[in-house]
Write a structure and sequence with these properties.
The protein is mainly β. It is 0% helix and 68% strand.
């Protein structure tokens, strides 16, 4: 199993679209989000495969310090993981970790 870390930094409108640093192949099994200072609550997060659009997780109005979620067991084939954040507040950061199992 490989853990893929992805840093998130929102723009002045509180939005971000970021990608994993490299392409992965396997099944996305679990995610862990270190919310950092994204917000006290209300962050919306959608995580998919960049090319396939395979859904990994989708969460709305998140709050707290962390989020651990099982995924939809999305199969990724040589593609990056895409994260879209909305309502994250002005220039805030966090980090998402995705566990990808060998296929």
């Amino acid at each position: 199993m490989e853990i893929v870390p992805i840093k998130i930094l929102t723009d002045s409108a509180g939005n971000a679209t970021v990608y994993s640093p490299r392409r992965v192949k396997g099944i996305a099994k679990q995610t862990f989000l270190d919310i950092g200072d994204l917000t006290d609550g209300g962050v919306d997060l959608v995580v998919t495969g960049e090319d396939s659009g395979a859904p990994i997780i989708s969460e709305t109005n998140m709050s707290g310090d962390t989020l651990t979620a099982a995924t939809a067991n999305a199969y990724l084939y040589q593609e990056r993981i895409k994260i879209v954040v909305t309502d994250g507040d002005d220039t805030k950061s966090g980090e998402l970790y995705v566990a990808v199992a060998d296929s």
